[in-house]
Amino acid sequence: MTPRHAVAVTGLGVRCAAGATPAALWESLLQRRSGTSLHAFDDEGTVVYPASPMTAFDPTGYLTPKEVRRADRSAQLAVCAAADAVEDAGGLHVSPGRRAVVTGTGYGGVISQENGIGRPDVLYASRLMHNAGAYWVSAGLGVTGPSLTVSTACASGTHAVGEAMQMIRAGSADVVVAGGHESPLTPTTAMAFGRSGAMVTECADPAAASRPFDVGRQGFVLAEGAAFLVLERLDLARARGARIYATLTGYGRTSDAYHLTAPHPDGAGARACMEQALADAGTTADAVTHVNAHGTGTELNDLAEARAITALFGPRAVPVTAPKAITGHALGAAGALEAVIVAWSVHEGLVPPTAHLTRLDPRCELDVVTAEPRKISDGAVISNSFAFGGHNACVVFDSPDG
Q1: How much is the pTM?
Q2: Residue 238: CB partners within 8 Å, gap ≥ 6?
Q3: Read out DSSP for 44-106?
Q4: Active site residue: 294, 347, 356, 391, which one?
Q5: Is 294 a catalytic residue?
Q6: Ranges of the chain whose pLDDT falls below 70
Q7: 272 three-class SS
Q8: Is-catalytic flag, 364?
Q9: What is the pLDDT of residues 284-335, one digit of tens each?
Q10: 155 partner at 20 to 30 Å CA-CA among 250, 273, 332, 371?
Q11: Which residue is catalytic, options 39, 290, 329, 356?
């Protein structure tokens, strides 16, 4: 049997309200500086909720004016974040056929879809298709190897990163540009989530609207963004002297098979997913130094995830952080944004604090890092994504020298 290849993270790129670069996003997390504000989802200002938009996004220099007209905003975000990740990695040092792209998105080109209802133009179908981001990224980077898209709601970005790792392990590609993208800030999307009760619609302080694990939480904050990682065979990365942020060592995916939108109350599927990821990484729960929580700020998800973490690691036994307090919830891009954050966290040996947590829900027996960053030793870090549809995805990162 051919041994599976180890996987390195050599490049990172992001676009989100909390930062247009990984360094800027990291600084926002450390300073607990939220990207959320009161946002008008329609031109008339009739749909106004807290949200996390990229207010100064400009794809100039990444896409031509003609390409911008042909691509939905979600795909444009993807192209920019992916190109930045490749530049950060120092390029793609394998032939086009040994390169791959894996994207995750929950809503695809929903802006184009909503704007074109009843009056579609000739490019309508190609703008809204979920795999458009994968096309634009692969075409821009000269990727002729595998190119695919995963759509598992809020787990899409994490599934994309995990499936990319599997490609490298299996020998299907030597370098994979993997991540997620989403731009769902449309009136219909906002009203739908608002009416479901899952999303914050009113808040005295919009910047603090996202409050994972806090007794005063009111739901998630809708966000847009994109994040990509360059994953590379570890031996090839070391041979070319690449800067390695972290290694990607484990991947788990399970299904709750319980409810269309609610997680299993006891977190059984989430726990099984974490256990699977740790087993795949060849490590155990007691070796984990940090858990990046899905942490949406909805009661059902927070409680189910807290129960899963406590059941696996023990009460308050491992540092936990929830970046959505700063980034908002970018749906299919969320797991990819958090994969970038975790890779940076491993590189820095630091857990960023969870913002806006003033009173921990006593039902969540977690050691949530607040107020100040916390130093951690080298070791496994797990990142969780638990989505509508009962789709669970977890990935494990570790130090390159671990």
Answers
A1: 0.97
A2: 8, 244
A3: TS-SEEEEE--TT---BTTB-HHHHHHS-HHHHHHHHHHHHHHHHHT---S-GGGEEEEEE-S
A4: 294
A5: yes
A6: 1-3, 402
A7: helix
A8: no
A9: 999 999 999 999 999 999 999 999 999 999 999 999 999 999 999 999 999 9
A10: 371
A11: 329
